Amino acid sequence: MTIETRNANETYEYAKSLGQECKPGDVFCLIGDLGTGKTVFAQGFAAGVGVTDTVNSPTFTIVQVYEGGRIPLYHFDVYRIGDSEEMFEIGFDEYISGDGVCLIEWADLIEDILPKSYMKITIEKDDLSDADHRKISVERAGS
Ligand code: ADP
Ligand code: MG
To answer: Which of 13, 50, 92, 98 is the most interior residue, by most CB within 10 Å?
Structure first.
């Protein structure tokens, strides 16, 4: 399905509703150019999970763990990853098979190691005349 948002708050609220419904073992992959709203989405999603800490892109640490919500949230930003091997070095396997939910910004950069089934969230600025307009497509990917 595809939804359209007119401002950052609408993206936040939509992501929050997904965060409220997510289950342990779920993997949400965020795909979109710089500045499209992946981190805004992550912040709303985290609020939905019940995380009250401030959520920012974990650009320098690759993964940030938030334990304060209904279930653990593992928030990845893999923009600076060299290759997928590095993901296993930081324990990607354990996060994916853990008791929390994974949210991965720039997941297209590690497409070769994504799990069999995941939620693919693609965010696009499709209307160049409206800087705050986004098209967000949500699909179950993999097998
Ligand atoms: P990314 O993580 O994809 O690089 P960010 O979430 O950090 O992007 O930044 C997105 C920027 O775009 C924020 O400044 C946000 O306020 C702005 N923005 C404007 N409209 C929207 C929208 N509809 N959805 C999400 N963010 C939006
Ligand atoms: Mg970001």
So the answer is: 92
